[in-house]
Amino acid sequence: MLSYDEEIKQEGIKQGKEQGIKVIKLLLEEVPIEEIARKLNLSIKEVIEIRDKFYQ
């Protein structure tokens, strides 16, 4: 059983991950794939594969 402090910490981590996923999804919707690929030094195919994983 987790202590109260550990429960609060775990909840904060969970909320942080959920917020991060929302930001990534928004970026994938709003920023052209070509620009994301160029800035992250990835191929367009790799960016499309990453995007598709978020929407499975």
Verbal overview:
With 56 residues, this protein is an all-alpha fold. It is built from 3 helices and no strands. It has helices at residues 4-30, 33-40, 44-54. Helix 2 (33-40) crosses helix 3. 2% of the residues are buried. The mean pLDDT is 87.
Q: Characteristics of this structure?
A:
56 residues, 82% helix
Q: In angstroms, what is the radius of gyration?
A: 16 Å
Order of helices and strands: HHH
Q: What structural class results from the helix and strand content?
A: mainly alpha
Number of strands: 0
Helix content: over 70%
Query: Which blocks of ≥5 consecutive residues have pLDDT under 50?
Result: none
Spell out the blueprint of helices and strands.
Layout lengths: L3 H27 L2 H8 L3 H11 L2
Helix pairs in contact: 2-3
Brief overview:
This protein is mainly α. It has three helices and no strands.
